[in-house]
Design goal:
mainly beta; Thrombin, subunit H; 14 strands; disordered C terminus; 123 residues; single chain; disordered N terminus; 4-stranded antiparallel sheet
């Protein structure tokens, strides 16, 4: 059995949980503000610990997610308060990263205005 908080040498903990929600399958989503990521677990034992994101400003990165929600279609919405944006992804693979907010970052580290979508930025 794995040591509590570890799975194959990877830390399975959250640094500063802010928001939590449960999807229609009973999986638990956590806005891990301290590690700049979204965590999903299957149960309160931490089974199937899945992480999306890391600290930063561009696609795939959060500054400090404060809340998380999942809609009926399974899309994940995260409030990244320090970046003044809402992020929507199709699932925890990060597919179709979309942002809405005043201070989102482009991949080159520049601000863009509300409603601009990072998946439409040139490569």
């Amino acid at each position: 059995m794995a040591q509590a908080g570890k799975a194959a040498g990877v830390a399975r903990s959250v640094a500063s949980p802010r928001g939590v929600c449960v999807d229609s399958s009973g999986r638990i989503y956590i806005a891990d503000s301290g590690d700049g990521r979204i965590v999903r677990i299957d149960d309160m034992d931490g089974s199937n610990f899945v992480v999306y994101g890391s600290y930063g400003g561009g696609p795939g990165h959060f500054s400090a997610p404060e809340d998380v929600r999942v809609d009926a279609a399974g899309r994940v919405y995260a409030l990244d308060g320090e970046r003044c944006r809402i992020v929507r992804i199709d699932d925890l693979s990060g597919r179709n990263w979309t942002t809405y907010g005043t201070y989102s970052w482009t991949e080159s580290g520049q601000y863009r205005t509300a409603g601009e979508n990072s998946r439409n930025l040139p490569a």
